[in-house]
Amino acid sequence: MSYELSPTSDILFSFEDLEVWRKAVDFAKRVIDLSERIKTDHKHLRLIEQLEASSAAVAQNIAEGKGHYTKKDFVQYLYVARGFLYKTVTLVTIFHKNRWVSEDQVKEIKRSADEIAKMLSGLITSVRQSVV
Known about the structure:
The protein has one domain (about 15-130): 23S rRNA-intervening sequence (de novo design (two linked rop proteins)). The protein has helices spanning about 20-35, 45-65, 70-95, 105-130. The protein is mostly helical and about 130 residues long. About 30% of the residues are buried. The N and C termini lie far apart (about 35 Å).
């Protein structure tokens, strides 16, 4: 599964050109799909909501940062995106310890997160070097 523009869309925002943003959108979709299969008590719904929100926040912060006028702001939002990525991995790990998700599901999420983290780090380095 990968992000694709709608065939009826003729508008492309600058952040949609970023491969890391596309992968983050796909990542959020996979995490949200996973969260919909979790069976747990109502008292844990807040954790599931946090999982969904943190996974979506990765792509959201990349997009929001790209919308700012300075590269310094963009870098700051990329750091925030990486923080939400790490939060998502932490929540999935907690869910695994509670036996709400399988080890294979954790591995899949971690593989995707690792790829996105490396891409974010590379983009941060690239943008920071272009500021100097």
